[in-house]
Amino acid sequence: MPIDPYILLLLGTVGLAALFPARGSAADVASGASTAAVALLFFLYGARLSTREALDGLRHWRLHVTVLACTFLVFPLLGLAARGLVPVILTHPLYQGLLFLTLVPSTVQSSIAFTSMARGNVPAAICAGSFSSLVGIVATPLLAASLLGGNGGGFSADSLLKIVLQLLVPFLAGQLLRRCGVRRGRAKRVGQGGGGRREGGFVTRHKRVLGLVDRGSILLVVYTAFSAGMVQGIWHQVSPARLGGLVAVEAVILAVMLLLTWYGGKVLRFGRADRIAIQFAGSKKSLAAGLPMASVLFGAQAALAVLPLMLFHQMQLIVCAVIAKRRAREAAAEVTGPQPAATTRNAVGTGTRSG
């Protein structure tokens, strides 16, 4: 069972916020740094995301529409259905966080990794994750504003301005920087007779460093959110029984989505490789995109809002790793299926001759 090391870092950050929460002027500094970190994150998302690759995947539009429907339609419907569990199993703040979880876009890296492990359609998983990230920049805040109401930041002029300034503008700036880099790279290749850097050269060359910046920024966002939660005493609202109920509800949602994406793909007559991509891209939620979005949409209430997402992230990694290995074994068995029979016949013939 894989335990994501980054989850351990996140839990360590939560513990740090519990022991040494930012207060007073330190809280103001942390809040300002968190705001800047969110803008930086979405700038880097824009700089990384190849719009050209995403558009090239339009040929497989049925698959991408299916994944988007799972991510931004079926998931939210399950989240809305969970409203009936309040207040018996979930408190209202935990339900708000659970509903927000169902609104965030799909993952990119882990969807690709699990699709590859399961011998599925990796290019389709890449494009599906890219489409989900693009749509999520706009769809997630709008859905949250519509479905969460005042508790999710509301659809006020102030919250809309925050979304635009902290999420959309940096993302578009990153895309613009990437496009400028692409043009310069093409001009350089023409001048050098085919040499030069590939698309997004700077991002590609500094991928490891920028990955550390990504993760460090998210840790800062988590520290700020949980510090505010500690100062406000919101953790008294979460009992072990409520936490266990939340985990059980998330397990049911994940199971429903995994079954729906797998057997729904079969009903829609997708091939096995495409069904694998649909299952892993359509059943997952992005921690990297969800955490900074929650800090913008929920403000001081972000601590409880991101708790369901953090739990779901680890759960989906564990379950999908098991499923991916199973799919890989099934694929290997299909390839080598006739071989055991031939081996058996050879063994029988050998035994006969020996006798």
Question: What keywords describe this structure?
Answer:
355 residues, mainly alpha, disordered C terminus
Number of helices: 15
Q: Residue share in helices? A: over 70%
How far apart are the termini?
A: 48 Å
Structural class: mainly alpha
Could you describe the 3D structure shown?
With 355 residues, the protein is an all-alpha fold. The chain is built from 15 helices and no strands. The relative contact order is 0.17.
Write the layout of secondary structure elements.
Elements: H1 5-19, H2 24-48, H3 51-56, H4 61-81, H5 92-101, H6 109-117, H7 122-148, H8 157-191, H9 201-205, H10 207-232, H11 240-267, H12 272-282, H13 287-298, H14 302-335, H15 338-354
Helix pairs in contact: 1-10, 2-8, 2-10, 2-13, 4-5, 4-7, 4-11, 4-12, 5-14, 6-7, 6-12, 6-14, 7-12, 10-13, 10-14, 11-12, 11-14, 13-14
What would you say about this model in short?
This protein is about 80% helix and about 0% strand.
